[in-house]
Amino acid sequence: MATRIGKTGWRATVWGELLAEFLGSFVLIAFGAGVVAVAVVGLTESGRTSVIFAGAGGWLLITWGWAMAVAMAVYVAGGVSGAHINPAVTFAFAIKGDFPWKKVIPYWISQVIGCFAGAALVYVDYVHAINAWNAANHVVSRGASGGLTTFSIFATFPAQYFHGNMFGPFLDQVIGTFFLVLFVLAISDSKNSGVMANLGPFMVGMAVAAIGMSFGVDAGYAINPARDFGPRLFTWLAGWGHNAFPGPFGYWWVPIVGPLVGAAIAVWIYRWFISKTLDARQQQAT
Question: Does the reported pTM lie above 0.90?
Answer without folding.
Answer: yes
